[in-house]
Amino acid sequence: MKNYWDQAISFDEYIKIADQRLHHPDNPKDEEYKQYYELGVQRMDRTLKKFTINEEQLKELQSKNFNGKILIISEAWCGDASATVPALVKFFENQNEVKIFLRDSDPSLINQFLTNGTQSIPKVIILDNEFNVKNSWGPRPKYGRDLLSKHKADPEAYPKDEFYNDLQIYYARNRGIDAIQEILELL
Which is it for strands 133-137 and 123-127: parallel, antiparallel or unpaired? Predict the structure, then answer.
């Protein structure tokens, strides 16, 4: 894991890369994903403006005496990631080292943390100080997983557009609290 950690970037660099890919796409994939980068940048900006650390969650983190690292596998075009990653970074950054590994830069990392056989992101990898994996979380909180299950169970009654809309409303209102809580329970 240390090799992946060493290749990972800071959240500030992640934001810069997202902005560069949005405004100056330099390959066909970035051009194809331009609308998703635009939404991702907007959602990250909104989360950064609205997010405040929940003091009870902060106390819980401190009580666990977790002194490891948080490695997040992500891409800025991803709707789940753009709503969750900024809150996770802001919550953990003053307590633990946090880095982001771009999923599409090297699939060998995400392939170790598949979700139902897919490379779903974001994926949070909880590491100890020796870079051993303690646990992992992702790609979305339980409420989001429940919405996805509802869509998959009956896509005609609960179409994809409605699912995506409900998921983004949830993310906007929840502001990362559920994701943070689920990760705290894994520490």
Answer: antiparallel
What is the C-alpha to C-alpha distance for residues 33 and 75, in angstroms, rounded to an integer?
A: 11
pLDDT, position 186:
97
- Would you state the torsion angle of the CA atoms of residues 92, 98, 100, 106, taken in this order, to the nearest 10 degrees? -130
Report the alpha-carbon distance of residue 170 to residue 147 in Å, rounded: 10
Give pLDDT, residue 103. Answer: 98
b/e string for 46-64 if b means 16 or more Cβ within 10 A?
Answer: bbeeebeebeebeeebeee
Q: Do 156 and 163 contact (CB within 8 A), yes or no?
A: no
Cα 111 → chain centroid: 16
Dist. CA 171–CA 140, nearest whole Å: 10
Task: Write the CB contacts of 30 (distance below 8 Å, at least 6 apart in sequence).
Answer: 21, 37
Average pLDDT over residues 143-162: 97
| 109 within 8 A of 73, measured Cβ to Cβ | yes
Q: What tokens were used for 64?
A: 């666990």
pTM over 0.85: yes
Average pLDDT, the chain: 96
